[in-house]
Design a protein that fits this description.
The complex is a heterotrimer of chains A (224), B (393) and C (308). Chain A has 8 helices and 9 strands. Chain A is α/β, with parallel strands linked by helices. In chain A, helix 6 packs parallel to helix 7. In chain A, strands 6-7-8-3-9 form a 5-stranded parallel sheet, sandwiched between helices. Chain B has 11 helices and 16 strands. In chain B, the strands form 4 sheets. In chain B, strands 1, 3, 4, 5, 6, 7, 8, 9, 15 and 16 form a 10-stranded mixed sheet that branches. In chain B, strand 11 and strand 12 form a beta hairpin. The relative contact order of chain B is 0.19. Chain C contains 9 helices and 11 strands. The relative contact order of chain C is 0.11. Chain C is α/β, with parallel strands linked by helices and 308 residues long. In chain C, the strands form 3 sheets. Chain C has a 4-stranded parallel sheet, covered by helices on one side. In chain C, strands 9-8-10-11 form a 4-stranded parallel sheet, sandwiched between helices. Classes of the chains: A alpha/beta (224), B alpha+beta (393), C alpha/beta (308). At the A-B interface, helix 2 and helix 4 of A face helix 1, helix 10 and helix 11 of B. Strand 12 of chain B pairs parallel with strand 6 of chain C.
Chain lengths: 224, 393, 308
């Protein structure tokens, strides 16, 4: 099976900081749903950034969707992220001054490689309806509940039909019902699209739903 | 709309108060010097136009500016008087059309201007309702004054009592309104026009009373010496001129000694103007002849100097405002760090993110300049009317 | 919000003031007769005689009013205001003009040329207070009874018409010259007649004949007798007293006296002769009326006719 992402002998340090992350070997196959757990500060988010090409390793190789991101320039990595990845952030990171619909369609507005056409708008509407946000598309995030904001962020990650979803604590601070709903949406998409899911989570109750769990304690030598 | 422009527009709309403040600040910085220039230009045109229409003013020696301003705009403080004889002198030259002006009296806060019918013809004033004054005691009211007073032909106006020309007092005269002028968009709209002789009656230099020679007038007679009659001080003088008592009105003394505020002279050409000016060059000449446009040009030079100082001050304030706006913008970028990071993370290129921020600046600038343009348009359209209404009439 | 700039622009355009219609200035070169207003009959006759078809002369005073006492209504004054020329007789004759508003440019004082030859008279005048403002003495104003002054007045009329209508000045000049010639002839006629009464004391019914008297050296005294009224007793007694020092045998009347007055005067040895100033409408043309005056005077004192 082809790898969705593969890291080899990766060494990463934040500039000016004492934190160092070493990943000798990590592979996620296409179509897998993988959870990454570990203590705070162990580098889980950094892993996602490396996989997405947001951060560059000092050494080693990061290949995602057959693209060697560790050797790619900034523009290439951004373009790659826009076309092929979907990102869900820990704090959702919705733009307060855009409506729910415009937040969902944000990738299309900010990436000329993606075309904002009727099909994209249709996808946004369907996604929003699927998570119960059909009647709230005109609202701004300030007028949404915590759970609704999280669902809007999910829709933004899925609207470009990514082949790899990277989610950083997608269920943080949600009540149990919303947690389940969020995961249902992610898993449903992955199953439908054959996409790969790599999720960082602190929520051990959710682990049984994932096909594989990567424990940073055993994997990593992320140390502060 | 492109992505960055769309985001910029949404951002500005979402923070509409901040956006409005920035837009208005920029609009004011841009508009104020331009608007000031437009207003000064329009004022200058108005002042110059009125001066152009009044080539020469003859008056007592003294401040030429006060003489011209009083004669053109009927300032409440009239210049030192000259005599009716000076008007006759100007007329006798045959070089110019001459019009006498008597100023200094008021009715309900509006100036009473004593003059002749020729003033209307030379100023292009038209009687819209009623007719021009025909006999002593009649007045014609400018359009704005008539509207303010709510008067029409047939109504009356009473002159305000005051002291001018160092006389003991000025008698309120009840004047009959016989006409209302069409709007002229000048100081004439706010004035009440009477014959010069009526102005003299208001000033107590002419009056009417019963015929002291008639037998029944003994109560008003202090002494009779042959054909000379001395009237008592208590003789009742009419304070309203009616058809019945009009014939009794008379002036004592030599009419040539009676006072005028100025004589307006309208030469037909440059040669006549130069000739008339030349006749008043003697060092012991009691009166002066001034060129209205020259006086106005001097005044406008002063105005322009003040304007340049004002523009400089506005420039300094404007620079400070722009610096403040730049600071606000830089601070907002710092506050939006997370948003910018998010955009980077979802794949937006650095130039594209910069375009969002730049679009906000450009939009605010365009709106500000656009608003300044609208304000300038408004001043261009309505400035002249406002100047005439509030400044000149 | 996109509509805002457009709406503001539309508002600005909609609120723009409508352009004022331009006031039309009167055309000074109107091709039509010169409209001339006058203040008495002699000026009317002069203006018509000199102006001919080029002028339209108006004298709106009622026929039964003494023009020197006339006070026209405001509406009549408005008609004078619209005239191209207003000819004043001057010398205080047309005092109403001093209380009226006329266009200075149109006013012409036809007595300006002989202002130094006006006669000032003692008239009841008044002042306010012992050292107060007072009137100057009045001026005799029937200047046209001196044909030489009438000729100067005609000259002034011609000049005024020529200034107003330069293209017709040659015609005006020609007609004025003709009128002046007739006035000179009248002057010669009256001079010849005056030689016959040079030393004779005469009376005038009113102080109207100052200029006639001065021109021809007449020894005249003025009464204040109305032709259409019989003087009361005191005036007869005053006359008799006057006759003791001024034994007049001739009285000049401005109009036909009553027969009773004439009879009583005749009893006193005074002959009545009408010498009409013709200041308002006369029975005939003004100049003809002056000639008729001369004829009547000549008839009263023709050589060989006894003085009654």
């Amino acid at each position: 099976m082809a790898a969705a992402t593969r890291l080899r002998d990766v060494v990463f340090r934040y500039p000016g900081g004492d934190f160092e992350l070493r990943i000798p070997e990590l592979r996620v196959d296409r179509g897998e749903q993988v959870a990454v757990i570990g203590p705070s500060g162990s580098g889980k988010t950094t892993l996602l950034h490396l996989v997405a090409g947001i951060a560059l390793p000092e050494a080693g190789v990061v290949e995602t969707a057959d693209v060697d991101l560790s050797r790619s320039g900034d523009a290439a990595r951004r373009s790659f992220r826009a076309r092929r990845l979907g990102l869900v952030f820990q704090e959702f990171e919705l733009l307060e001054y855009l409506s729910v619909l415009d937040n969902i369609l944000l990738p299309y507005r900010m990436n000329p490689v993606l075309r904002l056409d009727a099909a994209a708008r249709e996808r946004a509407q369907v996604l929003a309806a699927g998570v119960g946000l059909r009647d709230k598309l005109a609202r701004t995030p300030a007028r949404l509940s915590h759970g609704e904001r999280q669902r809007a962020a999910l829709c933004r990650a899925l609207v470009t039909e990514p082949e790899l979803l990277l989610a950083d604590e997608p269920t943080g601070n949600l009540d149990p019902a919303n947690k389940e709903r969020a995961l249902d949406a992610l898993f449903a998409y992955c199953e439908r699209a054959g996409a790969t899911l790599l999720t960082v989570t602190h929520d051990y109750e959710l682990l049984p739903r994932f096909g594989r769990v990567i424990d940073f304690k055993t994997l990593g030598e992320g140390s502060a | 709309m492109s992505g960055p422009a769309f985001l910029a527009w949404r951002y500005l709309l979402h923070h509409r108060i901040k956006t409005a403040i920035l837009v208005i600040s920029i609009a004011l910085i841009v508009f104020l010097p331009i608007g000031l220039r437009v207003l000064v230009d329009q004022s200058a045109r108005e002042l110059t136009a009125r001066a152009d229409l009044t080539p020469l003013v003859v008056g007592a020696r003294g401040s030429a500016l006060e003489l011209v301003l009083a004669s053109l705009y009927f300032e409440p403080e009239p210049p030192e008087p000259i005599s009716q004889r000076e008007f006759e002198r100007v007329r006798r030259t045959g070089l110019v059309e001459a019009v006498p002006l008597h100023l200094g009296f008021e009715t309900r806060g509006r100036p009473i201007v004593g003059t002749t019918l020729d003033y209307f013809a030379l100023r292009g004033l038209r009687v819209a309702t009623g007719r021009a004054m025909a006999v002593l005691g009649e007045c014609v009211v400018g359009a704005r004054a008539a509207r303010e007073f709510g008067v029409a032909p047939g109504d009356t106006l009473v002159s305000s009592p005051q002291t001018v020309f160092q006389l003991a007092g000025v008698y309120p005269l009840k004047m009959k309104v016989v006409g209302v002028l069409a709007p002229n968009h000048s100081a004439d709209d706010g004035a009440v026009f009477v014959d010069v002789k009526t102005a003299w009656v208001i000033g107590g230099l002419g009056h009417g009373h019963r015929d002291l020679a008639e037998p029944g007038a003994d109560a008003d007679v202090a002494a009779r010496e042959g054909s000379r009659i001395t009237a008592k001080a208590s003789v009742v003088e009419y304070n309203e001129i009616t058809p019945e008592n009009l014939a009794s009105f008379h002036f004592h003394g030599d009419v040539g000694d009676l006072p005028l505020s100025a004589v307006l002279a309208f030469p037909p050409d440059e040669r006549a103007r130069a000739l008339l000016l030349g006749r008043y060059q003697a060092p012991d000449e009691a009166v002066q002849v001034v060129r209205s446009t020259a006086v106005m040009d001097e005044l406008l030079e002063t105005v322009l100097t003040v304007e340049s100082y004002a523009v400089a001050a506005i420039g300094v304030v404007g620079a400070a405002t722009l610096a403040t706006a730049a600071l606000v913008f830089l601070l907002s970028i710092r506050l939006r760090r997370r948003e910018i990071e998010t955009l980077h993370k979802i794949g937006a290129s650095r130039p594209r993110v910069a375009a969002v921020l730049l679009s906000e600046v450009v939009a605010v600038a365009v709106l500000g300049v656009g608003l300044a343009g609208l304000l300038t348009l408004g001043v261009s359209r309505f400035g002249e009317a406002a100047i005439r209404r509030f400044l000149l009439s | 919000m996109r509509w805002l700039p457009v709406a503001l622009l539309a508002l600005a355009v909609a609120c723009s003031p409508a352009p004022e219609p331009e006031a039309s200035a009167p055309d000074p070169d109107d091709a039509g007769p010169l409209v001339v207003y006058v203040v008495n009959e002699p000026l009317r006759a002069m203006a018509e005689r000199i102006g001919g078809d080029a002028v339209e002369v108006h004298f709106p005073a009622p026929a039964d009013v003494d023009p020197s006492q006339w006070s026209p209504s405001a509406d009549t004054v408005a008609r004078y205001q619209n005239a191209d020329l207003v000819l004043r007789s001057g010398a205080g004759y047309d005092a109403w003009i001093d209380r009226a508003t006329l266009r200075e440019r149109a006013l012409v004082d036809t007595s300006a040329g002989y202002a130094d030859r006006l006669i000032h008279v003692e008239d009841p005048t008044h002042r306010h207070g012992p050292r107060g403002e007072h009137s100057h003495g009045a001026t005799a104003f029937t200047t046209w009874l001196d044909p030489t002054l009438a000729a100067l007045q005609a000259r002034a009329v011609a000049e005024a018409l020529s200034t107003a209508r330069p293209d017709a000045s040659a015609e005006f000049e020609l007609r004025a010259a003709g009128l002046e010639a007739e006035l000179e002839a009248l002057d010669r006629r009256l001079s010849a007649m005056a030689e016959r009464i040079a030393d004779e004391p005469i009376l005038y019914s009113h102080p109207l004949y100052d200029y006639l008297g001065r021109r021809y050296g007449l020894d005249g005294r003025s009464l204040h007798w109305e032709p259409d009224a019989i003087p009361p007793g005191p005036q007869w007694r005053a006359l008799e007293a006057l006759l003791r020092e001024h034994p007049a045998r001739l009285i000049l009347w401005e109009a036909d006296p009553l027969p009773e007055t004439t009879r009583r005067l005749t009893e006193l040895g005074i002959e009545s002769v009408v010498f009409a100033p013709c200041s308002n409408r006369c029975a005939a043309d003004w100049l003809a009326a002056m000639q008729a005056n001369a004829a009547r005077l000549e008839a009263a004192r023709s050589p060989g006719r006894p003085i009654r």
